[in-house]
Amino acid sequence: MTMFETFQTVTYEGADSDNPLAFRHYDAKKQVMGKSLEEHLRFAVAYWHSFAWEGGDPFGGSTFQRDWHPQNSMENAFKKADAAFDFFRVLDVPYFCWHDLDLRPDQGNFADNLATLDQITDYLGEKMEQVGTKLLWGTANMFSERRWMSGASTNPDPDVFAFAAATVKSCMDATHKMGGENYVLWGGREGYETLLNTNMGQELDHMGRFLNMVVDYKHKIGFKGAILVEPKPQEPSKHQYDFDAATCIGFLRKYGLENEVKLNLEQGHAILAGHSFEHEIAVAAADGMLGSIDMNRNDYQSGWDTDQFPNNTPEVALCYYHILKAGGLGSGGTNFDAKVRRQSLTAEDLIAAHVGGMDICARGLEAAAAMLEDGGLEDALSERYAGWETPEAQAMLESDFESIAARVVAEDIRPEPKSGRQEILENYVNRFV
Questions:
Q1: Binding site annotation covers 349?
Q2: Which of 189, 262, 298, 385 could be bridged to 291 by S-S, CB 3.0 to 4.6 A?
Q3: Which residues bind Mg(2+) 1 per the record (predicted)?
Q4: Domains located in the chain, CATH noted
C-alpha cells in the first residue's frame, strides 16, 4: 500500500465546494477558446520535488519520512515509482517530468547508472500504461553529484564533458523510449564562481558544441519532441551562462540553434533574474522560442528559489495571456516545479498543494482567454501604435537619417507625449481576475 492508496481521484465540485481535495475551478473537459482546459494547460507533476525531495533546507536535514526513504537502493526506487503513479491517479494528471537521479540512485559509474536507468524506466513504462499518465519531458541531473561541481558541458575536465555526453544520451534514449514529448537541458552548474580560474569563451564554445550534439542525436534517433533549455540566474553558480530568456536566445543564435531549440521557462527563475514571468514568456514568444513552462512562485522576501505552489491569479492570468497570444504551449505544458513546505508532512498536504495550483492555473487561463476574447488590451495596443500604420511611418523605416531629418525640418514636426494609460489597463485586467 502506498501513502496515496486510500485517496479517491480528485474531482471537480465547483466554486462553492469547501472540500480541500476537490477542484473548484479546474474542470478538465470545460471548453475555452475551442479547447478543453486539460488540452490548454497540459499539467505535469515534477518527480523531483514531489517524490525525491526529502524536506531538507540549507540549515536542516530531512523532515519527510516516506516509505521509499532512504533513496539509496533500487528496491526503494520501485516503491517511489509505485507511490508516484498512485499520486498521478489521485490527481488524474496527464503528464509527469523527471531527472534521471530522481528515478534511481547514482551508482558512481556510467555503466551501472545506465543499467539502473533502463531498469526503472522499463518499470515506469508499465505504470504509464496502467495509469494513463504520459511523460512531458525527461532531463539529466548534472548538478547534484560532486563530479559536476565545475559544470557539465562547460567543465574544464574533458572527462566530465564525456560523462555528461554519455549521461544526456542515456536520458534522451529513455525519454524517447517512454514517448516523452520534449527533452529539457538545465545547466544547473553551467556558470562560474570567479574569472580567476575560468576561460569563459572556451566554456561557452563547449556548451554550444554540446547542445549541437544534442540536436544531432535527436535527429539520429528520430525523436520528434522539442529540445528545450531552461534559463536560470546566479543559482547555484554566481554567474550562470543561462541567466534569462534573452541571454539564452542570444546564445542559441550565436551557435546556430535558434531553429532547433526552444525555452522551458520557470516563474521562480524569472523572479531571481529581476523579471516578471510574463516578461520571460513574452520575450521567448517574440522570437518563436516559447516551449514549455515550470509553474511555481518565489517568496519575494527571499533571494533563493523557494519553488512554492502558485497562488496569485492575476500573475498567472498575465502569463497565460501571453501564452494564448503565442498560440499555446504546443508540445509543452504546465509542470509544477514546486514543493510543499518542509513542515507540510502528509499525503493530504501534497495532494492539496497540487489541487490548489491546478485551480489557480485554470482560473488564470480562463481570465486570460476572456481578456483575449474581449479584446481590450489588444485594442489599446493597436491604438497606441496606430501611427506606425501610416504610409509615412512605414516609409521612414526604409529611409535614412538625412531624409528623416529633412522631413522633420520641412514639416516642423513637434511631438507631444501621449498617455500610456497604465493604470487604466491595470484596472481593466482586474475586471477579469
A1: no
A2: 262
A3: 230, 266, 294, 337
A4: 31-374 (3.20.20.150), 379-430 (no CATH)
